[in-house]
Amino acid sequence: MVLTLNCRNSREIATETRMLSRPRAFAPSQIDGGPVHYEWYDGDADHIAALRRLLDRLLGHHGLRPGQITLLSPHASPDWLGDLQAALDYRLRYLDEEDAGLLMARRLTSISFCPVSGIKGLENDAIVLTDIANVEDEWARAVLYVGMSRARAQLFMVLPVTLKTAYERLVREWMVSLQHAGA
């Protein structure tokens, strides 16, 4: 069975996911939403500061509850979570199989965190995708697809500034492909 309509993501999230991950098949979305947000950081200390600023905004200005936010990383582990939690001053919950029901029932009370591979088949209102070291090879694009497509309403990409040139190139290539498709 082929999925013909994306009922999970907004058009904006679906389009950005398609642009960066370039999946072979992709179902269009009919849901309107806001733009995908990018935070660029330079180095480990700035990475933590960017995550802290973003979480402050999500919980403050955006009015989200902690359980509506999931941090995703391709390299997440329970040990890394402890280091991250101490640096961020936020209570984070490592999402495991037993927590999947709480996430889907929207009953989590803290920000969840897990590897991208651990959220396949799940979703949350706001996804913060971080620790991406590459946007160009096939594995990286698969990680981007799974991570980005877990966002129901809001997607935040926290990326190293070293990827900005590659990201901008992907955007240009996407725009050219759209022009050729429309011609």
Textual characterization of the structure:
This protein has 183 residues and is α/β, with parallel strands linked by helices. Helices cover 40% and strands 23% of the residues. The chain contains six helices and eight strands; from the N terminus they run βαββαβαβαββαβα. The strands form two sheets. It has a six-stranded parallel β-sheet, with helices on both faces. The protein has a two-stranded parallel ribbon with strand order 1-2. It starts with 5 loop residues before the first strand and ends with a helix.
Keywords:
single chain, 40% helix, alpha/beta, 6 helices, Rossmann fold, 183 residues, 6-stranded parallel β-sheet, 8 strands
If strands are numbered along the chain, what order do they take across the biggest sheet?
3-8-7-4-6-5
Number of domains: 1
Low-confidence stretches: none
Strand proportion? 15-25%
**Strand and helix order:** EHEEHEHEHEEHEH
Quick one: CATH class? Alpha Beta
Total number of beta strands: 8
Q: What's the architecture, going by CATH? A: 3-Layer(aba) Sandwich
**Distance, first to last CA:** 31 Å
- What's the total helix number? 6
Residues in helices, as a percent range? 25-40%
Average pLDDT works out at 84
Q: What's the main sheet like?
A: 6 strands, parallel
| Overall shape | globular
Look at the structure and name the CATH superfamily. Answer: P-loop containing nucleotide triphosphate hydrolases
Q: Supply the helix-strand structural class.
A: alpha/beta
